[in-house]
Amino acid sequence: xxxxxxxxxxxxxxxxxxxxxxxxxxxxxxxxxxxxxxxxxxxxxxxxxxxxxxxxxxxxxxxxxxxxxxxxxxxxxxxxxxxxxxxxxxxxxxxxxxxxxxxxxxxxxxxxxxxxxxxxxxxxxxxxxxxxxxxxxxxxxxxxxxxxxxxxxxxxxxxxxxxxxxxxxxxxxxxxxxxxxxxxxxxxxxxxxxxxxxxxxxxxxxxxxxxxxxxxxxxxxxxxxxxxxxxxxxxxxxxxxxxxxxxxxxxxxxxxxxxxxxxxxxxxxxxxxxxxxxxxxxxxxxxxxxxxxxxxxxxxxxxxxxxxxxxxxxxxxxxxxxxxxxxxxxxxxxxxxxxxxxxxxxxxxxxxxxxxxxxxxxxxxxxxxxxxxxx
Length: 375
Prior knowledge:
Elements: E1 2-8, E2 17-19, E3 21-25, E4 28-29, E5 35-40, E6 45-48, E7 60-65, E8 75-80, E9 97-101, E10 110-116, E11 119-125, H1 128-138, E12 142-146, E13 152-153, H2 162-167, H3 169-179, H4 183-194, E14 198-199, E15 207-211, H5 231-236, E16 240-243, E17 255-260, E18 266-275, E19 282-283, E20 288-289, H6 297-302, E21 316-324, E22 339-342, E23 348-352, H7 366-369, E24 373-374
Parallel strand pairs: 15-16
Antiparallel strand pairs: 1-2, 1-16, 3-4, 3-22, 5-6, 5-12, 6-24, 7-8, 8-9, 10-11, 11-12, 13-14, 15-21, 17-18, 17-23, 18-21, 19-20
Pfam family, one: MOSC
Protein name: MOSC domain-containing protein
GO molecular function: catalytic activity; molybdenum ion binding; pyridoxal phosphate binding
């Protein structure tokens, strides 16, 4: 098995950037989903913007240019690709290219509280010039926020070892009471907390991994053409795509661990299935549901891929994963917890589950999503 594709999405919900090599961190591919867009409602509450509810996000392409060593550093260039027919009236800003710092200077940015899937974070507003560009392209007030030093909690038992931690909750509560009187133990408890898994604006885990073999599933083959064999995988929005013709379609449902032999034997721990939504039906050139059968891709998967009781009404494609980097001899993490990978690197399935895992992140109901954050 080898890595077929690597994708990063610096601004969540926009088109991916295809990479030939990437730095893997505990929070995902470096710079993945550190930015996010929110619609400002008339009552000043915020609504998270994702492809499922705002398919026009697919009209924005993004690329990373520059170098960390250059003046100004690396930038994300964002372009709005006006569809035919256009979705909204023309605005001059729609013809411009927006430059967004890959790593912004956060010293003067205003804080803002946001929420994604019931996991909140204290983020930072990028400012009026960025908001004006996206507002002109969407046709309604929109703000761009950066995760800054914010950390979103991993909910349910998706984080590695979360089930065992929940079982120890009662004893941990007693330990917390004791540490409140013992400063040295209290400090240790804080350190352990800081090492727990956390997220940027990735949905439920730092990585989404898919298998190219699953595209050969009979119900998916009609959606593929010789000139665009992988455009369906593009809609799955994975970070890492692996390929191995010996793996059956959806064998990844049972993968528990992938090893990366070329990267100091780092491992990807796969903990949950990814339930799919209407983003699969989006035409990236039109910014709306695709015409014809392709606009029914979600329905096609619904027929026989509703295999996870935790995703009662959603079909499954792909697995959420977390990075585990082995300790080196001095006890520290190799590369401060990061590893380098390239397209073509070897991957080994080193552990499989006997049964499918059950997704248990309690995502808020749709009615609550309209006001998940307050400015």
